């Protein structure tokens, strides 16, 4: 009976490493028919993968997953993208989709593959092991977003991504102030209902 509480505690630590290999172990009982653990284990995996996708760990603009989140809520990433994380998360989201058929997991797989093809595939057919950039590259001021978006798009982005004039996350040392990450605080189905 200790596997479920232990797994839950592991998934609630900060920093939040992706640890994709653990999700396959937790989805495993779903396939093997261990009814005592299957529903709880799968629910934990679904919750964690959903938070990773909607939270700051997934790059809403360029795609792909950052290496880890610096907080337990998955909202503030460490701004580095590793190929091996993309590969392991592709496996985790694919297995979660196979177990649940949730469209969110399927779209995450497609979006991550597109990111790898566009940003991590080299001209000679090889792959880049990592992408690293300063956090300012991946975050936005409200002024930058106002210049890039129409007024209607800006208002929608402000609502979807919880944008604030003072910024919506605690920046890393050396980063600019009043920066916003584009992460979804409210899952898309709930947002769609709220926005009609």
SSE diagram, text form:
Elements (H helix, E strand, L loop, with lengths): L2 H9 L4 E2 L2 H13 L2 H20 L13 E2 L7 E2 L1 E3 H18 L2 H18 L9 E3 L2 H4 L3 H7 L2 H10 L27 H8 L1
Antiparallel strand pairs: 1-2, 2-3, 4-5
Task: Walk me through this protein's architecture.
A hairpin with a 7-residue loop joins strand 2 (68-69) and strand 3. The strands form two sheets. Strands 1-2-3 form a three-stranded antiparallel β-sheet, with no helix packed on it. Strands 4-5 form a two-stranded antiparallel ribbon. Helices cover 55% and strands 6% of the residues. The chain has nine helices and five strands, in the order αβααβββααβαααα.
- The fraction of residues assigned to DSSP E strands is 5-15%
Mean pLDDT: 85
Fraction of residues in helix:
40-55%
Number of E strands = 5
Question: What is the number of helices?
Answer: 9
Task: Profile the largest sheet.
Answer: 3 strands, antiparallel
Characterize the quaternary organization of these chains.
Answer: single chain
N-C termini distance: 43 Å
């Amino acid at each position: 009976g200790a596997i479920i509480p232990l797994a839950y505690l592991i998934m609630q630590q900060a920093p939040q490493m992706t640890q994709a290999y653990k999700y396959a172990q937790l989805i495993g009982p779903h396939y093997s028919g261990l009814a005592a653990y299957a529903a709880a284990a799968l629910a934990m995996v679904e919750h964690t993968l959903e938070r990773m996708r909607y939270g700051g760990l997934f790059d809403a603009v360029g795609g792909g997953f950052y290496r880890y989140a610096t907080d337990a809520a998955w909202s503030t990433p460490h701004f580095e993208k590793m190929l091996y994380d993309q590969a392991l998360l592709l496996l985790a989201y694919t297995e979660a989709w196979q177990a649940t058929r949730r469209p969110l997991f399927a779209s995450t797989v497609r979006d991550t593959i597109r990111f790898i093809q566009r940003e991590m595939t080299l001209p000679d057919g090889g792959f880049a092991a990592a992408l690293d950039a300063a956090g300012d590259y991946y975050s936005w001021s409200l002024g930058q977003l106002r210049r890039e978006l129409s007024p209607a798009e800006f208002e929608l982005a402000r609502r979807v991504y919880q944008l604030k004039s003072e910024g919506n996350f605690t920046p890393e040392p050396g980063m600019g102030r009043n920066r916003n990450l584009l992460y979804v605080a409210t899952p898309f189905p709930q947002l769609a209902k709220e926005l009609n």
